[in-house]
Amino acid sequence: xxxxxxxxxxxxxxxxxxxxxxGGFFQEQALIxxxxxxxxxxxxxxxxxxxxxxxSQDALDLAxxxxxxxxxxxxxxxKRMSLAIKVPLSIHMIRTRITEWKDKSPCDIIxxxxxxxxxxxxxxxxxxxxxxxPQIPMLVNFxxxxxxxxxxxxxxxxxxxxxxxxxCSDNQKILPTSININISSRIKVSQIKKYIYANQDYIESxxxxxxxxxxxxxxxxxxxxxxxxxxxxxxxxxxxxxxxNVRRKKSDVHKKIKSLFEPKSHKxxxxxxxx
Length: 275
Hints:
Layout: E1 2-18, E2 24-38, H1 41-49, H2 57-68, H3 70-82, H4 91-98, H5 106-114, H6 117-125, H7 135-142, E3 144-146, E4 154-159, E5 165-169, E6 178-183, H8 189-198, H9 200-209, H10 219-226, H11 232-239, H12 243-260
Parallel strand pairs: 1-3
Antiparallel strand pairs: 1-2, 2-5, 4-6
Helix pairs in contact: 3-7, 10-12, 11-12
């Protein structure tokens, strides 16, 4: 049994000249859907660290149940024979075919799978659990389970403020606005800890992509700021900081507070912060 997983990836499409800004360019980028296929646990872990959906316990349990269900295996074999599908399919063959899915979201694929003629034929002859419906065409055509159609034990989902095709000026990048970790109700706390430990490098890399809000003031900055007009040397001695770092942190906090809400000059230009 093989498994097909998914992640949302950012792809640079190229540069187009910006007529408004002399000598400037727009960097055109798009969020695309990336799919991979694998057949063992070590491959699954490698792709999981790259941001693809993990191999969940539901997927493993379903793969075992399918293997033991003689009626389902018989139906899949008959459909393959009628469609002249040669098995076993190689990983390379499946990868070649799923590269065509870059413009298709998992939801689009799942909807089309449920309407597939193979599913309609199976529903006429068998009692089938709803969660299995999108898997039947995948089993027939790819000898694989489609992970996005199944519940994940844990999955890391980068959220973007914009979706689809968009323009990004110069060398700016479209970055995620948050990182969501979705957790199944079946999972144990020990499994969550194990998952986070195993994926800490990937999670750290995703967290580094998040934009730090300009008004976010650290605990140490708060302590420095709350000391008021005391001399930087005294504050530094109390907090274990160099005098220069105290002044720098005061300056940073001042800028953050001022940038949140400040008056404009008569020219319509924001006045510079004076420290």
